[in-house]
Every structure is written in structure tokens, then in C-alpha cells.
Design brief:
The chain has 365 residues and is an alpha/beta fold. 34% of the residues lie in helices and 24% in strands. Strands 13-12-11-14-15-16 form a six-stranded parallel β-sheet, sandwiched between helices. Helix 1 packs antiparallel against helix 4 (108-117), helix 6 (208-217) packs across helix 11 and helix 7 (248-254) runs parallel beside helix 8.
Amino acid sequence: MRHVIDQAAAWQRSGTRFAMATVVRTWGSSPHGPGASMLVSEGGRVVGSVSAGCVEAAVCAIAEDVLAGAAPVLERWGIGDEDAFAVGLTCGGTIEVLVREVGANVPLGRIAADVTAGVPVALVTPVDGGGWLVVGGGGVSGSLGDPSADRAGALAAEGMLGRGANGLVAGGDGAIDGGATCAPERELLVQSFTSRPRLLIFGAAEVARPLADVGATLGYRVTVCDARPAFVTDERFPRADDVVAERPDRWFRAHEDLVDAATAVCVLSHDPRFDVPVLALALRSRAGYVGAMGSRRTHEDRMARLRTAGATDAELARLRSPIGLDLGGRGPEETAVSILAEIVAARRGGTTLPLTLRTGPVHAT
């Protein structure tokens, strides 16, 4: 969503009118979950996606009507509908998409700035198109039309923002995150914009270069850290957000408050002087993924050193080493793919099995 909100803010600054289409609900197999968005400008330019290309043409047609003055449209496409085959949605699922114009009064610049700064922020817009709220680090701004609706919308947004969730809620529903309100029922779309997950790469080995590049493509905030200044340069890692010449354990200890369950830690140094201290810290941290590169002999030696350093059996069980999935690949680029494939599977709960060996929907619901 970051590139979508950045483009939306840029079009707003330039005075370009545009419609935003957002997935609000899905059933069965669908390529994108709630929150996935696509922009359609008045000149016909498209940015983002709400499906795997299945319904984009139909969404563009609706967006043109909305920009011509039509009311916001909540449209559903599913495999059981004749229209689904007409637009190409043959993947077996159902998606519901809200298409509405985002006016010049919505502070998209603030949202984009918060996202860049890593500050969680949510945009609340009613399905009927009346008003908006922005809820985040800068407080609550905007209005949905009356104070009761504003309180309900802010309460819903705060609850969903804490989970990084997107979708429709019923404004005025007393069950929303336990908050009682007397606002009338009204469907509200909550879009959460949270900070990018972190990919921490310790050791500027050759595989670190494509790992940083592909990690950035997948939306990670990438940090590359190595104690050798000659190896950590902006020229070697042009797509990394942070390139740091420092002992990995010192950097990790100083920035441990940034590490959360969405953080992936990859230790590529091959040197126990550097990898054991940072791994000991990472395995005790909240990081959702901790992996280390090396042969099986290196792994056994590393495990012994970590035990000596005080790592518990539970902590050692978290270590993914040798790092990556067995793709049979060779070279830095294919090794980077295997590492990121394992990271994605760990984060999303994937089985790592070929889809041909599985039954049921392709996409988890």
C-alpha cells in the first residue's frame, strides 16, 4: 500500500482527480486481502491492484463512472456469478470492492508522511461517501458527519490499527472492540497503514546484495550491518534503507526496541566472533524469524557456542539454520530467493509445499 498512498498524495498535490478502489471483503481463494487498493486517475492511469488482474478492467469502468459524478460503488465479484467469468475472476473466490473518489480535503500527504516515518495511521471512509477520518499518531482529524459517528469511527480505527487490519465495520455497533456507542449503523471502511516490516541483514556477504534488493521489493525496511566499513557502502546496497558499519551485536542492542514479531533477522557473517553474539540477542528478542547461513558443520559449531553463551533450548529451537528453503538453487540471487521464501512462509503461515501436492483453495482465507 505504500506506493499507492504515495501516488495518491502526489496526484492530490498536483490537482489530479482520481478514484480509489479497495478490497473490503474476501471469501474463498483471492489474490489480495482486505485493504489492497488500486488508483484510477481521471486520465486513465492505473496504480496498484485489487486482484491478480482478474477484475481490474471492470473496476476501471466503475471508477470512470464515479469520477463522472456517480455515487461510490460497492461491487462484488465471485466464481458463482456470470459476471465473474466475464471479467476473468475464475480463481474460485469472491471479492468485494469499494470504489470511491478521494477528495482534495482528505489529508493524504499526512498519511503518506506518517507511513514514511513508520507511524501507524488509519483512514476511515463511509461506504456512502460522506466524510472521512484520519486516526493515528497525530490524533484524530476530519469528520463523518456527526460526533457520535466520529467516536464510533475513531474507536473502530484504533482497534483495527492495533492489529494492522483492514475492512468494513459497522459504525455505531456497540460490539466494536468493546466500545459502546449510540451512533446509527453505518458501514465504514478502515484502511490501516502500518510501518513496513524490518529485514535485518548482518554480514555484508555477496548474498546480502540480492537479499536486500528483493527484500525491498517485498516491502521490507532493509538494514544491512557489518563491522567492515569497506563492505557496507551505499553503492553495494542501493536499495537498503540503512547501511551501517558497526558490530552487529552492538547495533542490535542499541535498536532492540525496533524489533517486533514482523522482523526478520538474517545472519550471514560466517564468523562466530560476529554471528554468535548477535544471534544470542536475536533469539531472545521478539523477532518473528531468525536465520543464519552456514554449512551443517558450521551450524553444529554455532549451536554449541550459543549454548555456551547461555541460549536456552527454546531459543535455539527458533533458529533456522542452515538458512532458507531447499530450492536447489545456486549463486547469490537464487540463495536470496530461498531465504526470502522461508521468511514469507514463516510470516504468512505457509506450508512450503508445492501447490500441486495440496488440496483446497490456493489462497488461505
